[in-house]
Amino acid sequence: RLEQVLIVNGVRCVPPQNKPTGPEIANCRRFLSATLDHYETSVAYVALGRIAHDTLLTTLHERRAAFPFSHGAEHELSSGRRLFDSYHCSRYNTNTGVLTPEMFEDVFGRAAAFIKG
Predict the structure, then answer these.
(1) CB atoms near residue 6 (< 10 Å)
(2) pTM of the predicted model as reported, rounded to 2 decimal places
(3) Using one digit for the tens of pLDDT, what is the confidence trace for 64-95?
């Protein structure tokens, strides 16, 4: 069980070809914003993919260039919260081995370690 860690996804539906467009991503940002407000006590985020990473940074008014996406990367945000990056756990990424269970579990393990201090 992982508390005070919010798992972030960039879009709320599966778009055609599983590739969301800019307007679709922007349209879903309001849902992310509402989720962030609801879970305001979260001290860490796990972004599932680059879109989630970029959308979270935009929503939090952070400079995206200051926090480049990379699987396994950790970023300390200006709020003091921590962002952990993971490749998205889509079937494409898992079936092709781009994301293995060990890689995914490592990201969550480091997020848990961060929470425990």
Answers:
(1) 21
(2) 0.93
(3) 999 999 999 999 999 999 999 999 999 999 99
